[in-house]
Amino acid sequence: MNIKKMRFVNVNGDDLKRIRTSCNKTMTQMGELMSVDRKTIQNWENGVGQPKGNQLFTLMIAAGFDFTAIINQLSLLKNSDKGRND
What we know:
The protein is mainly alpha-helical and 86 residues long. The chain contains 5 helices and no strands.
C-alpha cells in the first residue's frame, strides 16, 4: 500500500456533533463516556481543538461504529508475524 496515495479524513466539529447525536447522547453524557468535561465536547464541536485518537475511538464505539474490518486486518497481521524474528 502506498501511503502517499492514501486519503486521510479530517473529523471536524460538525462530524463530532453528528456522531454524538446519532447515539442520542448529550454533551455531558458523552463527556462522561470520554472522561472529559462537557465544555471540552462543546469546544470540539465548535472547532476548538480535537479529541485524541483514543477519545475519538471511544466516541465511535459509543455511536456503534463497526470495526470488524479493522479487527480482521489486525488478526491477519498478527498471523503473518508468527514465526518472524524481527
